[in-house]
Design a protein that fits this description.
seven-stranded mixed sheet, 2 domains, five-stranded parallel sheet, 9 helices, 20% helix
Amino acid sequence: MRSVDVVIVGAGPAGIGMAMELGKIPGLDFGVLESNRIGESFVRWPAQTRLITPSFHSNPFGLADLNAVDAATSPAIFAGAEHLSGRQYAEYLESVAQAAQLPIACGCKVLNVEPHVDGGFYLNTELGELFTRFLIWACGEYQFPDLSPFPGGQLCQHYAHIEDWQILESGPYIVIGGYESGLDAAINLVKLGHQVRLLVRRATWDLPNETDPSLVLSPYTRARLHEMESNDKLEIVYDASVIEVTQNADHSFRVHTADGRHWDVEQQPILGTGFLKGGGARQIKDLWMWDDDGHIVLSEVDESIMTPGLFLVGPQVRHDQRIYCFIYKFRQRFARIALQIAQRLQLDTEWLEGAGDGVWGPFGNSECCEGCEC
């Protein structure tokens, strides 16, 4: 059984970015385990989906690209695009990993995690057993869609299971959900000439006094929506709280809302209602403490309250009102975890101390993030 200091599970932006930070620690023995391939979640995006956060090469002026996981690189320069496709971003992640020669084992799914009584973790994987002093979970959310947000949800197609909007049969379609995935589905279907009825609880693009794209529609999607508002193929139904989907005798589908309304449609309704709270962290759900809203409770260094030595990185990280679900947000946490591990292993921390000061822009400063809501 091989023994290492640190194992990162997942080779998406959180896992690759965290590995880049660990690579700064002299003498640290670490590895990344990925069940499929680098950037797998992004490879699975619908062909038309783009990053909603723009990429721009601002590195020469001291500000990293918003979507970079390594401050010296830029997805914009790599792909020659401002809003990258999923495949383009996965290729960017692979290029970063290859350039840094990160120790990544692809096709190595973790089957079981067992905390050791004296600290550390035994991992049972498809490639054998492993012991690690510290475990960093970076499995993301996209591969863990919420398929049953209401009764009959299994009759629908979830956004995360669409490979290409062009291969869908002729509409009309009903899309359920007023956030990013719901709007992206509706916009792409309308662009392809389908009639679309979009059911939303509220206009997430027009909430007063709210600007955080973690809570409202991003400016990128908002602009795309405004371009569609005059298109007669898009109908937006507001105050539509879907409570059930049923199938009619003729095999069509009926979508029911709480106020008694319903609509029939021949094609499967599209679910744009999001992903399981906690995402991939639910694979080891008993090792975390969960709050009443289904979110993971973490220490100030993103460590499990229940299981010492287990850390979380990625879009599930939350601290009070701060939601770190975008790359430019959760990458601010990498140095904090790396420093904590290096100190506990009594390794040289010279390359880490102060590493977060400005590397990700002014909101990357640890002094700032102690008291603000960035």
